[in-house]
Amino acid sequence: MSDDATTTPAVHGAWTPDGETPPSTPKVSEEAVITMLKTVFDPEIPVDIYELGLIYAVEIEDDGRIKVEMTLTTPSCPSAQELPSQVEESVRMIPGVTDVEVEVVWDPPWDQGRMSEDARLALNMY
Question: What pTM was computed for the model?
Answer without folding.
Answer: 0.77
